[in-house]
Design goal:
The complex is a heterodimer.
Chain A: E1 6-7, E2 34-39, E3 42-47, E4 60-63, H1 66-76, H2 86-91, E5 122-132, E6 141-156, E7 159-171, E8 177-188
Antiparallel strand pairs in A: 1-3, 2-3, 4-6, 5-8, 6-7, 7-8
Chain B: E1 20-22, H1 26-36, H2 46-51, H3 62-76, E2 83-90, E3 100-112, E4 115-125, E5 131-140
The chains are: A mainly beta, B alpha+beta.
Amino acid sequence: MFTVMIYENLRRPSRPSFLTHRYGQSGGHNPQRHCDIRYGRISTVVEFDRNALGVESAPVSYEVEKGAIRKFAEAIGDDDPIYSDEQAAQAAGFKTIVAPPTFLCTFRAQELPDLKIQFGRVRLNGGNEYEYYQPIYAGDTITLTAKYADVSERSGRTGSMVFVITELTFKNQHGEVVAKGRNTGIMRE
Amino acid sequence: MAKRPVYYDDLNVGDALPTLVKEPTTRQLVKYAGASGDYYEIHYDHHFAVNSGLKDGVIVHGLLTAGWMGQMLTDWLPSPTALKKFGVSYRAMARPGDTISCKGAITNKYDKDGEYLVDCEIYAENQRGEKCAIGHATAALPTRA
């Protein structure tokens, strides 16, 4: 199961030493395609269905409910009244209640094509990044599409991990892109 | 809740952002599971978490930690819509019973396309000083002029 280890330019010298692995079968009959992925200073081989990358999910729309925003802010423990009280939101210059920055994570995308990665038992969230272009208001209808952008793999202190990057686009009922997102999913042993 | 105004002119690289402290409980994780729609059992079912390889049991949703880091920013900013970019990567696991401090500092200030922007590095650390999440943010601020 052990394969080549190729050192790239030492762009990330602080990383721990890496091992590389090959997942899935190494025989020629494997329907999954091989693909070279680079992460940091190592070039490794991860097996996944490259055809799944870049394929956009079917759009799915959600109505943004006042109560959903209020409960989300409450769960975080954020008592800013612009998330629960229309008058307070208007006094702060908004037309109505607005959503807090991480409210975007409540919108779930439709199913994405299967990457066909068999690895590990644990699924963790490695990171979330958002860019904001327009406020999201209570009463808006948000349409979400997603796509897999990248798959990579590395080994570190806690064992091997596979990273799956998903990109998200959020539009409102006027067709404006209100935000974009980039999620890093981790598959771990 | 009137916020103290924040002006671009008054900020300098290296300035610290006001700290926000959170003390998560299992109850809060359940509330967040419901409010966010993330029902992955590693966040509220001890046995499930242990069987999933998390030997110390349930962990805080990464996005809840991100939510606190977002709150730290929006408590400070004049408006949540001042936030233009926000990104968080998760490091150490946060757990119920921890004390999580969200902190940040300004790393750059510049004007671009008519907006006055500050970049911040942000993080959330536990009571042992371990970073549970690190991230970055960019905000657009008003000027005094």
